[in-house]
Every structure is written in C-alpha cells, then in structure tokens.
Automatic annotation (TrEMBL):
Residues 2-215 form the Glutamine amidotransferase type-2 domain. PROSITE patterns: GATASE_TYPE_2 (PS51278), SIS (PS51464). This is Glutamine--fructose-6-phosphate aminotransferase [isomerizing]. GO terms for cellular component: cytosol. SUPFAM superfamilies: N-terminal nucleophile aminohydrolases (Ntn hydrolases), SIS domain. The keyword Repeat applies. Keywords: Aminotransferase, Glutamine amidotransferase, Repeat, Transferase. One of its GO terms (molecular function) is carbohydrate derivative binding. The keyword Repeat applies. GO terms for biological process: fructose 6-phosphate metabolic process; protein N-linked glycosylation; UDP-N-acetylglucosamine metabolic process. Its EC number is 2.6.1.16. It catalyses: D-fructose 6-phosphate + L-glutamine = D-glucosamine 6-phosphate + L-glutamate. InterPro entries: GATase_2_dom (IPR017932), GFAT (IPR005855), GFAT_N (IPR047084), GlmS/AgaS_SIS (IPR035466), GlmS/FrlB_SIS (IPR035490), Ntn_hydrolases_N (IPR029055), SIS_dom (IPR001347), SIS_dom_sf (IPR046348).
Length: 605
C-alpha cells in the first residue's frame, strides 16, 4: 500500500524524492517523509502527517543539495497516524523505510532487547534496530542476516551513515523495481515514480539484495554472489500517468476503456478467433481441466463473478469464484485437474499471491490475468495473460476491471471452442459481439451528462441498493462497491429474487434502488422485483437495453444501453455504474482518486 522512492546520483535528490512521492500518492497513505544524505554524511529526516504537500512545505528550508535519499508514504498499520510513526526510521547508523508487515516484531523486540530504544509503535522501527544490532560495517552481510530473523512481508530500502551515497534494498512479497540511468540510480515501489527518468527497469527478485550507487546498480543473492537482473521495458509513456485535462484520474480512465479493450483483444484475435499463441498458453490448459477455480480480491473478484456466470452454463463444468483471503485458509477442493485463474491488476496483491502458491502446491495449473509485466503473480504463474490497460492511477478500478473481463471472455470463448461446446462459426460470432461492446461503451461515455443529472437523487441518501439477476447481479456487485468506496454511501447488491427473503425490509420511502435488467431470460422476473420495491416507495433507477419493453411508471429514471448481446452488456453497464459512483463522489466534494482508508495495491494481509 505504501510508496517508496530512492535515488542516488548527480541530481538534487530532494526534488526527485518529492516528485516521486507525488507520483505515488494514488497508492493510499496518511503520512510522508524523506531522508537526505547531506555533504557531511549526516542523514537528515523530514517527516509529516497528512499529504505530500505538507512534507514539501517542511522541506522548504533545506538549502543544501543532497545527492542521495529515500522517500516514503505510509499507510498506517502498526500505530496511529503520528510523526513518530512516519517513515523513514532512524536506528543508530541505519535509516530504513518499509512496506509490508513484520509479524514477529514483538518477539524481535524482546530477543534484541529493544524496549528502551523504540520511539514509535511500528514494526518497521523494530526491523531497523534489529538491522543496527547485526551491522558490523558491511551492509549486505547485515541485511542477509536480518531476513533470517523476520516473519512477514517486506520491502526495505536502507541507507547507512557510514556508507554515504549508497542505498540498499531487499524484498519479500512487497514489490520493488529499480533502474540505472545517466541521471543516477533509482528504486521504487511502483513504476510511475521511475517513468520520468527511464523506460527500462527490472523487478527486484525476492530475497535478493540491491545496492545502488550513483554510477551502478548491483544485485546479489543472499550468499552475496552478484546476479544479473532481467531488464524490462515500459510499454506506456508518462502521458498515460497524467490527467491530460481531466479533473480526475478516474474520469480519464473511464474514458480510456474502449482503447484499453482494443489493446487487450485485438492482438489476440486471429481469423476472428481468440488466439493465445503469443501468450504461450496451449489449448490443453483449457481442454484438460474438469473444473475452474477463479481467485481474486475486490473488483477483480467481481470480474471473476461475471466470468463465472458466463462460463459455467456454456462450458458445463463447475466454475467457482473465491475471495483470495478466504481461499488460502479453507482447504480448497482443487487438484491437478483444476485450472486456477488468478486475477490481480497489480500482480502483487498479497492474499492473491498466497492463493496462487497454495493452488500450485495442490498441483493445479495456474493462469494469471495481470496488468503489470514482471509482477510476482505473473512470474510465479504457469501461464500469464497480460491485460493492456496501461497505468491505472485512481484507487477505484475502472479500465482494469473492463480489460480483466475482456480477457476472461476470450478465455471462455477459447475454452468453448477447444472443448467443442462452440463451433468455429459460434466462436467467431462470440468474438464479433465482444468487439461490438466497444462502441457500446463509447456510447455510454457520451451519456455522462445524463448520469451526472441522476446522482442528485443519491448524494444525500445514506443507503442505496443494487439489484439484478444472473449476469446482471454480478454487475451489481461491482456497482455497489464503486459507489461505497468513493462516495461513502452505504451500498449493497442483492440478487433481485432474494429481496423477499429479508432484504425488502430495508426498502423505505425514497431509498435509491439501481436495478439492472439486461438479460432477456430473466427480464420479466426482474421487472416484477422492481415493482415490489417501487410499491414500497423506492426511487428506482433502471438500467436496461433500448429494445427492452418497459411499461411507463416502472422506474423513476431509465437509462438505456445499446442493443448488444445479453452476455456483453457488462461493458456498457460498467461505464454507467462507474459514472454514477464518480459523479456521486464529485457531488459530495470528496477526494475521488484517493478515497479514505483505501490503497491501490494491497500488499499487506
């Protein structure tokens, strides 16, 4: 969740660190700090609670130029939001920033007799003091010893006062990327902090020690043998991480969805059929399994729910969707005949990564759907299907959700083809309808002013309900999540037929109900459910297709999407649901891109 940036080189490190932390603000945080190595080799710390803008003000009096330093944005876990708990932490000669959680910090406090030394409540300061206790002048040796004492997840970046101009790092689960350029050496928790300086980088491997100097980046294993990193290249430019005239990243990323779908679908389309040859995914992966297990968290899990509603009736094999944090503790029924599909935008989500490792231990074949090249989940999966959303800066996921769905729809089509549930002609028709969803999304983006007008009926309400059946219910889950996470309106999604079994007790006068009715086979049933809530005073917003015959008075507001195949309505519906949440947040004058308590990449349990 937290952000890390480190730099050593000829440029002004203070400027680079503050700009880097600004680029990392989207990850979610509540305090920020930097450590600067000054000319006298003394390391100066500046730490502030609140936004990076507070930290920038606190650094205005620093006139001396530093050429080496670390920056950090903290999302509070151990200890509250205080200056003392803000990173970087100083422990004797050691300066340390940390992403992750050290699970055995309390035992380490006792084992290394740290009780009288700690100035914060954080597990991170404990790790810094343990490193100081092990340090005898050789940073790499001390770091190698440190990790043998730790349980948990971590990305550490460290400076040592007697090694000026050098930065050291190591990670376990929590991500780090690094790069060497003519402007110096960089390390960061996220590529967005590096893009202004280079397009070439490498993912720091787990359990490897990184040493940055102003003229070289060194990588060592835990036996201190130097290793060659695998250099990767960013396939998007800095403009993709800028607002480009939009008031918020979320609105920009909603608009980017049609192009993101094209980038994900078209390179994998051959003679009108889905083709994963370039992804090196053989057909036997889809043909030899007797069940599919989809594992993900949050929005990615909702993409999995929509995929399940599509896959299971078509493929006629069991398709199960599990929340990653539950899957890893429930002794799941998977084996070597199970295809486990792992979905993660960042490729670093810790619960999802743990679920992947568990599935592999059962012998299951694993296919990950990931947006970030070289991420841990991508590297550890048997097969990986990269989506091409580009960087997604807003915490609330929009285009990443759409491209995950597109990838899963293509997987479903390929599975139906190789398992002989589809003829070639049927598979071609499926893909044509998938492509038809792109102009349908564009049409709904054009209706954003209509959506903006309807949120006046939401923003002053404490609750909202989403209802639908089948695929529409799967869409509803994501709609409710979007509304609650950025507008703070309590929102819940229910299968429309379940209303009578308790939920309808919550329907009172003027309670907003967003009803989704795009599926022909259950359309009339959903309309009956809408009548039930309408009869109890609900304010109904109906999302349906232009061709659906809806009697006057069924809904207070009706928004029609273009007439496309029932299975593909998720794509234009997603746009509408995202816009509802966006304009509700704007209408309440909230921080759209950085909602409270949330982070973009969840790398702690």
């Amino acid at each position: 969740m937290c952000g890390i940036i480190g730099y050593t080189g000829p440029l002004d490190s203070k400027k680079i660190l503050l700009e880097g932390l600004s680029q990392l603000e989207y990850r979610g945080y509540d305090s920020a700090g930097i450590a600067l190595c000054m000319e006298n080799s003394r390391i100066q710390l500046v730490r502030h609670t609140g936004k990076v803008s507070n930290l920038k003000k606190g650094c205005e009096d620093i006139r001396q130029v530093s050429h080496c330093g670390l920056g950090h944005t903290r999302w509070a876990t151990h200890g509250g939001v205080t200056t003392e708990n803000t990173h970087p932490h100083r422990a004797g000669r050691v300066i340390l920033v940390h992403n992750g959680i050290i699970e055995n910090y309390h035992q380490l406090t006792t084992d290394f007799h740290l009780e009288g030394k700690l100035l914060s409540e954080t597990d991170s300061e404990v790790a810094a003091w343990v490193l100081e206790s092990l340090y005898d002048g050789n940073p790499a040796e001390a770091i190698s010893k440190l990790v043998t004492h730790l349980k948990g997840s971590y990305s550490f970046c460290m400076m040592f006062e007697d090694h000026p101009g050098e930065i050291y790092a190591i990670r376990n689960v929590s991500p780090l990327v690094a790069a060497y350029t003519h402007s110096g050496s960089f390390v960061a928790s996220d590529l967005t902090a590096l893009i202004p300086y280079t397009r070439q980088y490498f993912v720091v491997p787990e359990d490897h020690i990184l040493r940055l100097t102003s003229y070289k980046v060194h990588l060592y294993d835990l036996d201190l043998k130097e290793q060659e990193p695998e250099i990767l290249e960013v396939n998007w430019n800095m403009d993709a991480a800028m607002k480009n005239g939009f008031p918020h990243f979320m609105l920009k990323e909603i608009h980017e969805q049609p192009d993101a779908l094209k980038n994900t679908i078209l390179p994998r389309l051959s003679k009108g059929l889905p083709d994963f040859t370039d992804d090196q995914i053989p057909d036997d992966v889809f043909k030899d399994c007797n069940q599919v297990q989809i594992v993900a968290c949050g929005t990615a899990m909702h993409a999995g729910m929509a995929a399940r509603a599509l896959m299971e009736p078509l493929l006629r094999i069991p398709v199960t969707v599990s929340i990653a944090s539950e899957f890893r503790y429930e002794n799941p029924l998977v084996d070597d005949k199970t295809l486990v599909i792992i979905i993660s935008q960042s490729g670093e989500t810790i619960d999802t990564l743990a679920a992947l490792r568990l599935a592999k231990s059962y012998g299951s074949r694993t296919l990950s759907v990931v947006n970030v090249k070289g991420s841990t989940i991508a590297r550890e999966s048997d097969f990986v299907l990269y989506t091409h959303a580009g960087p997604e800066i807003a915490v609330a996921s929009t285009k990443a959700y759409s491209v995950q769905l597109a990838a899963l729809y293509m997987v479903c089509c390929r599975m139906a083809l190789v398992r002989e549930k589809y003829s070639v002609a049927e598979a071609e028709d499926f893909m044509k309808k998938l492509l038809d969803s792109i102009p349908a999304m564009e049409a709904m983006i054009e209706k954003k002013d209509m959506v903006k007008a309807l949120v006046t009926h939401l923003i002053n309400k404490p609750d909202a309900f989403f209802i639908g059946r089948g695929l529409d219910y799967a869409f509803s889950l994501e709609g409710a999540l979007k509304l609650k996470e950025i507008s703070y309106i309590h929102a819940e999604a229910y299968a429309a037929g379940e209303l009578k079994h308790g939920t309808i007790a919550l329907i009172t006068q003027e309670v907003p109900v967003i009803a989704i009715a795009t599926q022909e086979n259950v359309f009339l049933k959903t309309i009956s459910n809408i009548r039930e809530v309408k009869a109890r005073g609900a304010f109904v917003i109906l999302l349906t297709k232009e061709s659906m015959n809806v009697e006057p008075g069924i809904a207070d507001i009706q928004i029609n999407i273009p007439d496309i195949g029932d299975r593909f309505t998720v794509f234009p519906i997603a746009v509408v649901l995202q816009l509802i949440a966006y304009y509700a947040s704007v209408g309440k004058n909230l921080d759209v891109d950085q909602p409270r308590n949330l982070a973009k990449s969840v790398t702690v349990e």
